[in-house]
Each structure stands twice: as structure tokens, then as C-alpha cells.
User: Which sequence fits this backbone?
């Protein structure tokens, strides 16, 4: 059910949002839509490999996939990080794509997963979402 819901409702809207944002801010190919889709694919593959032993991740699928798709839409190479996070929050909230609590987790994942932030600050403590964080981070 979650996979089908995600593909039918969330994925097309997030891909469109990502494409429009990337065009608006002149993203280069290293952070473009192709890259976002590769990160989504990698996240899916890792998630599927972990589900037999970590079944709770099924309830985090939409968080993982959303984080994978939008992770560069707040990259300081292209925009102010806070503005990017506000844009992501606005789209996820106004289009009812995720619950408010899920949006908060997505924001935490994507704002702390870059190599430079991990190198400077270490890994965040995301509690039950820690593995979701590492799935997306490793997928990138």
C-alpha cells in the first residue's frame, strides 16, 4: 500500500516540484533531477534489502523517498538553506503530501546529511529515524 500510494500520489508531485526548483535556481547536472532520481533508486534498493530484518522501516518509506528526491533542494550552492527548507516545507504541507511530523523528519534528514555537515558536526541523533537518515545519506 505505501509503495503504491507513494508512486501514485507523491512521486509525480515531488518530481515536478524538484524539476521546477532546479530550473529556477540553475542547478547543474551534479545536483539535477537525474541525480535526485538516482538517489531515490539507491534509497529504494537499500530499503528493500533492509526490510526483511528491519520491518519498521516500511512505515518510514515515504520519509526516505521524499528525502532522497528533495535532498539537494536546500543546497547552499544554489540557494539560501533556510529558504530551500521553507519551500520544501510549504510544498509538502500545502499539497498534503506528508504528515507534519514526517515533514519535520525530512527537514532534519536533508539539512544534516551533507558530507561537510557530517564532517563538521557528526551524525545527528534522529532516534527511530536514524537508519532512514543513513539510507538517504549513503544513497547520495
Assistant:
Amino acid at each position: 500500500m505505501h509503495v503504491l500510494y507513494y508512486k501514485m500520489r507523491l512521486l509525480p508531485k515531488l518530481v515536478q516540484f524538484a524539476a521546477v526548483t532546479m530550473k529556477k535556481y540553475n542547478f547543474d547536472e551534479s545536483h539535477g533531477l537525474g541525480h535526485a532520481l538516482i538517489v531515490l533508486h539507491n534509497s529504494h534498493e537499500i530499503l528493500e534489502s533492509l526490510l526483511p530484518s528491519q520491518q519498521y522501516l516500511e512505515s518510514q518509506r515515504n520519509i526516505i523517498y521524499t528525502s532522497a528526491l528533495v535532498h539537494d533542494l536546500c543546497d547552499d550552492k544554489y540557494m539560501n538553506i533556510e529558504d530551500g527548507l521553507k519551500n520544501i516545507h510549504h510544498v509538502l504541507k500545502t499539497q498534503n503530501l506528508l504528515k507534519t511530523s514526517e515533514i519535520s523528519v525530512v527537514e532534519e534528514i536533508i539539512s544534516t546529511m551533507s558530507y561537510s555537515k557530517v564532517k563538521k558536526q557528526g551524525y545527528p541523533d534522529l532516534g527511530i529515524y536514524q537508519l532512514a537518515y543513513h539510507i538517504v545519506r549513503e544513497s547520495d
Summary: The chain is about 70% helix and 0% strand. Helices lie at 2-24, 33-50, 61-70, 81-94, 100-112, 115-121, 130-139.
